[in-house]
Amino acid sequence: MSNGFSSLSKTPWNRALTKLSLFTLLSAATFTGSTPVFNSISTVAAETSVAAELQVQINDLAPRVLTKEEKLIVKGTVSSKSEVKTLNLTLRMRANTPLNEKFLTDYLEGENFGGQWITTTALHNVTANQETPFTIEVPTNQLPLGDALEWGPRGIEVIADTAETFASDRSILVWDSGIELEPTRIHAVVPVPAVVKLKNYNPVSEPADTKQWQWVTKVAELPGASLAVPTNFLNLPEIQSALSTGASEVIALPEGYANLAALQQFAGSPLGLDGQLESVRNSGIKVRADVAVVNAQPTQALLQDWVGHTVVGRALALENPDDYTFQPSTLSAFNAQGQLLTQKSADASLLVSTHPQLNQLFAKNAKTAADQLDQTQLLRSISAIITRERPFEPRSFATLLPANNLSETQVLKLQALLQNRWVKTAKEFYGPADLPAEIPLRTLPAENNPQAFSYLQPEVNTLTESFNSALPLSETFNAQPDLKNDYEHSLVYLCSNYVGTGEDLQARITGGFTKRAMKLADAISVAKPATINLLDRSANLPLRVVNTADADANITVELFPSDPRLQVTKRVSVNVPAKSEQQIEFPVKAIGSGDVVVHAVISNSAGTVIDQRTRFTVRVRADWESTGTLIFSIFLAVLFVAGTIRTIRNGRRMRPTYLNEVTQAETVEDLNEGNHE
User: Does the record's keyword annotation contain Membrane (predicted)?
Assistant: First the structure.
């Protein structure tokens, strides 16, 4: 960690005080090394700093683990806002080995005493606003290493000072005296990088780009580092190579690498992911398919779901931490009820709690060479501190790397953690046989932290609402298993560690399922007709039922009038072929007149309502048709009677004329006959 400090004052008196203070601090550190006022030069200076006029960084140590080398080489850079002709570089080193990780992290942050004076050298011609490299070489016999029992991490500090300002940076050197010890076993679980995409609104996972994926083979070559691979990646060439020639076992992950704790909270079960691993186990692929990786603290309910598996989870607190002056193994056992055990048993399942400090270091990004040096040295140091606590008592620890963060730096960190004399690695990941005889009791949380997955809750609610809306239709088409599988698949990816907290992708996953579910939910409907006029007391109402699905549907349609003036005498059951329409008719009776809103409800064969969106209006005019017919009939009858009467009257007027004409004709005829005679 670099600390830069500006000029304290431009006056000769204050410059003299600054020089005197720095000389006093360095001298006191040389001769006493324990005076409380010198606990942190960096902290004291930081309080008076105005701007970072001068900065120094330690970028490399050679060697990083000191054994029998004859000298230590410290490399770094110095930068200044103004040109400096000459500045002094002072190297200091702690004479004692820290007992815990917190001391080291505090030391890097500038707290605690910087260390004993080792050497001072001059650096000339520092150009303004440019990084000037430096190298400090020190014979090993000048370092305050002490007895071989004091092996382990040591803090080192480089101070750069000019006539007006100074700055410092700290790092860690690890000293291995070669003392006899029992190595600590450490195993790392490394999820392969992947990306989640939507294809036809359906989430799928694919290997990450080559920028990250190229490091998969490097991890596979490290003993003690197990690749964790989703089941749908197992046939990839890089994974096949790791399965056949890798230095460590490959662990199978369910597709999507879901956070099992999130699934347990939202679904209450593994959603069949345990069966997915079981299928891999039965397939004959040489992969560990009995490991459940939980990127959270496991609960009792979760352990019950994964009985018979080795569960990898976040660290659990010790039941009685005051009973331990060291870090016990993080391996625990649990029974079929998800309860933790203190004794090893034949039917116990294994719980591996990962080391929190190791997890945090792998989750950090190294932005500079100095950051990378500090992080890799911290990993070495933590493993050394753990081993020093019980140098002849074998213990076991694990770490879980974050998803989608694989890089060259992560590979270097893994090498720094695992490739040390005081660390033991194995090809096989942990199993129940690795449980110690006596198991420290740890505390399980009663339930998941309600805030841990709160960012997912709105999307899960939307997903579940869409599922419930489409569920009745899925039963109608015998598509319930498909809908359920689709829902669970989307929920798995919503909780995927590859998605993380990416709100946009989560919303797209939810939106994709909602679109598919709503398409199914809207597949059956009653086409809304125009306003229907009902002019008689009884009639048949014609309606059309539309089926846009790919399967036939056996349904029942009921009509519910909003007014008793219209009564529907029966409901209609019908089979509607796939992608077609079906005409149906409802017998109805009208009691009175008025506009009545009718609600159409569709149910499946089980009686479950699947659609009730359609409402239409019936304009009821009871007896209008009968009354009109009667009036028209009466009108016709009147016309008929009137016509008949008129015809009769006309007939009577015509009869006398006709008779006269006949009589006259007969008279003429008689006269003619008489004349002839």
Answer: yes
Work out the angle at residue 478's Cα, subtended by the Cα atoms of residues 476 and 481, and round it to the nearest 5 degrees: 125
Residues in the chain: 677
Listed residues 383, 403, 434: the one ending a domain? 434
Q: Please count the structural domains in the chain.
A: 5
Whether 79 contacts 55, CB under 8 Å:
yes
Our measurement of the distance from residue 600's CA atom to the centroid of its chain's CA atoms, rounded to an integer in Å, reads: 42
And the tokens for 660?
A: 């006269």
Residue 463 to residues 197, 269, 450, 474, Cα–Cα distance (Å): 18, 17, 19, 16
Task: Take residue 206 and report the two structure tokens written for it.
Answer: 């694919």
Q: Is the dihedral of CA 127, 128, 134, 136 positive or negative?
A: positive
As a whole number of angstroms, the distance between CA 75 and CA 158 comes to: 10
Query: Which pLDDT belongs to residue 155?
Result: 96
- Give the DSSP H/E element, type plus range, for residue 643: helix 624-676
| CATH classification at residue 575 | 2.60.40.10
> Side chain identity at 558, as an amino acid letter?
E
Residue-range definition of the domain harbouring residue 647 = 626-677
pLDDT tens, position by position, 416-428: 999 999 999 999 9
For residue 138, the tally of other CB atoms under 10 A from its CB is 17
Query: Does one domain contain both 466 and 592?
Result: no
Residues 161 and 190 reside in one and the same domain = no
**Are 100 and 16 found together in one domain?**
yes
| Token output for 484 | 């359920």
The span from the CA of 574 to the CA of 593, in Å, is 30
Statement to judge: residues 9 and 157 lie in one domain = yes
Pair type for strands 184-191 and 538-547 = unpaired
- How many CB atoms neighbour CB 187 within 10 A? 26
**CA–CA dist 400, 186 (Å, integer):** 11
DSSP symbols for 465-502: HHHHHHHHHHHHTT-HHHHHHHHHHHHHHHTBTTTTT-
Does residue 73 share a domain with residue 155? yes
Q: What angle do helix axes 457-476 and 503-521 make, rounded to 10 degrees?
A: 20
The one-letter amino acid at 589: K
Q: Do both 269 and 192 map to the same domain?
A: yes
Q: Is 47 helix (H, G, I), strand (E, B) or coil?
A: helix
Mean pLDDT value across residues 198-216:
90
User: pLDDT digit string (tens) for 114-148?
Assistant: 999 999 999 999 999 999 999 999 999 999 999 99
Specify the 3-state DSSP secondary structure of 557: strand
In a domain, 441, yes or no: no
Is the pLDDT at 355 greater than 50, yes or no? yes
**Beta strands at 553-561 and 594-604: parallel, antiparallel or unpaired:** antiparallel
CA distance 461 to 506: 12
In order, the DSSP letters of 299-365 are -HHHHHHTTTSEEEES---BSSGGG-SS----EEEE-TTS-EESB--TTPEEEEEPPHHHHHHHHS-
Examine the domain organization and report whether 291 and 383 are in the same domain.
Answer: yes
Q: Among the three residues 470, 501, 521, which one is the final residue of a domain in this structure?
A: 521
Do residue 74 and residue 222 come from a single domain? no
Cα–Cα distance list, 230 to 372, 420, 497 (Å)? 29, 30, 12
Residue 672 has pLDDT above 60, yes or no: no
Residue 439 counted as domain residue: no
* Six-digit token string for 170: 């700290």
Domain assignment present for 575: yes
Tell whether 298 is covered by a domain: yes
- Reduced to 3 states, what is the DSSP secondary structure of residue 580? strand
pLDDT at 427: 94
Euclidean distance between CA atoms 302 and 584, whole angstroms: 53
Tell whether the torsion through CA atoms of 612, 618, 623 and 628 is positive or negative: negative
